[in-house]
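DATA CLASS: polypeptide
GOAL: derive structure tokens

***
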Amino acid sequence: MGKPAAQGMTKEKILLSAVSLFNTKGYSGTSVRDIANKASVNAANISYHFNGKQGLLESCFTRFFESYLECLEMEADKLDFTPADECLKRAVFNILQFQSENHLLSRFVWREISIDSQVVREIISSYLMKERYLLKRFFEMGQDQNRFTSMPVSIFIIQLKSMMSMPFLNSQYLREVWHVFPQEQYFVDRYFTSLEQWIDQCLLARHAAPKATLL
């Protein structure tokens, strides 16, 4: 194995170890030494690859939101020639799938976003403002296409965002109380079906019949 490949594996191992510890001990309760021990690397490797614990936090946000926004961008690019409800449903499914496959990272990021800090303010001013722009495009294009009812866009976006993030932010509650496991494909498929029905019932104009289910 070449040196760049080995370094890439070390960096990934450090990041995954950090995400695991941030979930169980919290960001402030996790030390660089904890992460180094879990990843079986020297603490100097964390400084080399991430510039310390703060750099690891920023890398967690970057990894999550770049993939999250890609799910929205891929479908937003199709809005000029595809019904908005179809694009929105595919984006929702892809986001649920991504969060399920990265459930520890998702839980940590959504939890951390609720805490006011300089890093979070920077995330809001960049990634989350772009998310707002993309989500508004789906809803506004749906209205322009006469696919969606006239509605307060901000309220429906808040509702949709809450439904997409809640299972992963509150994954322990779902496991302990409802015996539901957001990291399982079965959950993603069933939960998406419910969100798909919500879109059809709450957003579609009466004359805009829903297309066949995506699943």
